[in-house]
Write a structure and sequence with these properties.
CATH topology: Collagenase (Catalytic Domain)
Protein name: Extracellular protease
CATH class: Alpha Beta
Number of helices: 7
Largest sheet: 3 strands, mixed
Number of domains: 1
Strand content: 5-15%
Order of helices and strands: HHEEEHHHHH
Family: Belongs to the peptidase M35 family.
Radius of gyration: 15 Å
Shape: globular
Pfam families: Aspzincin_M35
Structural class: mainly alpha
Enzyme class: hydrolase
Number of strands: 3
Distance between the termini: 25 Å
GO molecular function, one term: metalloendopeptidase activity
Length: about 150
């Protein structure tokens, strides 16, 4: 992990210590994404945990399980974002998976310090340690890196 514009935008001022923490967290999230034990559980609109504005959630007592609310399926995907057809202020389905997996103590142990790209970018400027502990920071960083790669490839 290096001192790049993308790093600074989502995690704040770069230090080698903070960079190593972000790198370790991203590596743990990547490992969980590739785990055979990872499961997604689709919930219905009647589920009490799927309140307004909740796309997905995890529970520590169910490691490796991501619960998906109906609104998750209304979110844009990265392919939609790639061609600029949608606003991704609140992220994408793929990014939401990264966000949720980052909460587990065995990945990054993140919190919901901020929601939305504008608020999280501001948090990185004001309080880098809180941005490093924020689930959305990892989501938006991963989405932006992916979009940058796709755009450079075309």
């Amino acid at each position: 992990m290096g001192d790049t514009a993308g790093y600074g935008h989502w995690f704040g001022h770069f230090t080698s210590r903070n960079g190593e923490q972000v790198r370790a967290n991203l590596k743990a999230i990547r490992n969980e994404l590739g785990s055979d034990d990872l499961k997604a559980v689709c919930l219905g609109p009647q589920d009490v945990d799927c309140k307004e504005g909740t796309y997905a959630f995890v529970m520590f007592e169910r490691p490796g399980v991501v619960h998906l609310c109906p609104s998750f399926f209304e979110m844009p995907g990265m392919a939609d974002a790639r061609v600029g057809r949608v606003d991704i202020e609140d992220g994408t389905r793929e990014g939401t998976f990264i966000h949720e997996l980052s909460h587990f103590p065995f990945t990054a142990g993140t919190e919901d310090e901020c929601y939305g790209r504008t608020t999280c970018a501001d948090l990185a400027t004001r309080a880098p340690p809180r941005a490093i502990a924020a689930a959305d920071s990892y989501q938006y960083f991963a989405e932006d890196v992916t979009l940058t790669f796709w755009l450079a490839a075309h």
